[in-house]
Design brief:
Length: 189
């Protein structure tokens, strides 16, 4: 909020904030080799940030707000150093309506494959290729998770349990059976 980015209303609990809230993450901090030696101050430091945007936020507006904030704070330091910002990739938010026939097919398939009703979450919504694929194929997209939250997605020691791989295969097979019965008019919004 302090940098002027619109923040969606949400719960203070962990899971809803993980699923619904905008997030700014520091993914990596790099210094030249040997810069970690005692008594050594690196002459270059690089930080890699990522931002998860949510519905009704603009990627460009969020990027500009973050960069403006960084420049403002850095400018107030009176440092002889330079701040350089490089934008790398990105995309707009994506949201799938859970009431569509295709989404309902995915829910039924997941329930048959796993034997339990799936928990609907809104995680993974800033995947840039999804809106482009929906537009290209003129068909709705649905994310079907195969991993567990403890699988360290995009983190060190990322993994996918064999049980999840087999269950995911079964869920996709069931989904293909289900979605074959969905009318062709059930395209993307």
């Amino acid at each position: 909020r302090c940098i002027g980015v619109k923040v969606s209303a949400g719960s203070a609990s962990f899971l809803p904030s993980r699923w619904l809230a905008p997030v700014l993450s520091i993914n990596n901090i790099r210094t030249p080799e040997g810069a970690g030696d005692a008594g050594s101050i690196p002459n270059v430091v690089e930080a890699v940030l990522s931002a998860r945007i949510v519905p009704d936020q603009s990627r460009q507006d969020v990027e500009e707000a973050i960069i403006s904030h960084m420049q403002s704070v850095f400018g107030g330091l009176s440092s002889p150093n330079r701040l350089e910002v490089e934008r790398r990739g990105g995309g707009e938010w994506w949201y799938s309506d859970p009431e569509t026939p295709v989404f309902a097919a995915a829910r039924r398939a997941a329930e048959r494959a796993w034997g339990v009703s799936p928990m609907l979450v809104r995680e993974g919504g800033s995947i840039p290729i999804i809106p482009a694929l929906e537009s290209l194929f003129k068909a709705p997209a649905v994310h079907m998770a195969l991993a567990q939250s403890s699988d360290n997605a995009h983190l060190p020691n990322e993994r996918l349990r064999l049980r999840n791989l087999v269950g995911g295969r079964d869920a996709i097979r069931e989904f293909l059976k289900e979605v074959a019965c969905v009318p062709a008019t059930a395209g993307p919004p």
